[in-house]
Amino acid sequence: MWIKSTMAYRASFVMTTAGNFAATALDFVAILLMFSRVDALGGWTLPEIAFLYGLSGIAFGLADLAIGSMERLGRRVRDGTLDTLLVRPAPVLAQVAADRFALRRLGRVVQGALVLGFALAHLDIDWTPLKVLLMPVMLLSGAAIFSAVFIGGAAFQFVAQDASEVQNAFTYGGTTLLQYPPTVFGKELVRGVTFVLPLAFVNWLPASHILERPYPLDLPDWVAFTPPLVAVACCALAGLAWRAGLMSYRSTGS
């Protein structure tokens, strides 16, 4: 329904998609400005950071496109309009995710793909069948991990009804963090996004294998192939959190 509504005004769709593309592209422009003054950042070259940027941008863009509307849940909890979703014969999670579905978010995915293409064109990677297979697996697993963060943040809004910005700190903030190499951050932060909120499995760890870079925290080589397992675990935990939050919902009482 929302896609049909969007495509009814094609010029508006093109302009908003282009605007979304341009807004996200400013992040990469900032990186280009940095490299106009330095040759490497944390020991990583521009194409290597562009590789991280593209992977993070595509993975997050896919998750944002699919369930980015979850950040509006707090508003529905506050005004009681979530009740209308509970009486419909469809999963509440799917309804919240589809609410005001914004196809313009494709701009972020396209922008990330272009940066990734730039990186691959300038990197001298010794491709093996395993590395080739790891690319799509990494993108899909990263999208699933970000989706789990979206759902977990939405579940938290059942308790703290005005916490969309807290959720954004881990979703939008997380993808910005992953655009830069782990070597520019302190070890405590790297540990946190590896063992607590496992965003490092979106691109840092598998990208280290593809680029033949040292692994963050001196982790073993096999962790580069664990993003699918991490994604499944994150989605399972997010599902449990969502179910617990939904079961605790008591409407507004009005």
TrEMBL record:
Alphabetized InterPro entries for the sequence: ABC-2_transporter-like (IPR010390)
Keyword check for Oxidoreductase: no
Recorded superkingdom: Bacteria
Keyword Zinc: no
Pfam families assigned: ABC2_membrane_6
Alphabetical UniProt keywords: Membrane, Transmembrane, Transmembrane helix
Transmembrane segments: 12-35, 50-68, 106-125, 137-160, 189-210, 222-242
Protein name listed in UniProt: ABC-2 family transporter protein
Organism: Streptomyces chromofuscus
Origin organism lineage: Bacteria, Bacillati, Actinomycetota, Actinomycetes, Kitasatosporales
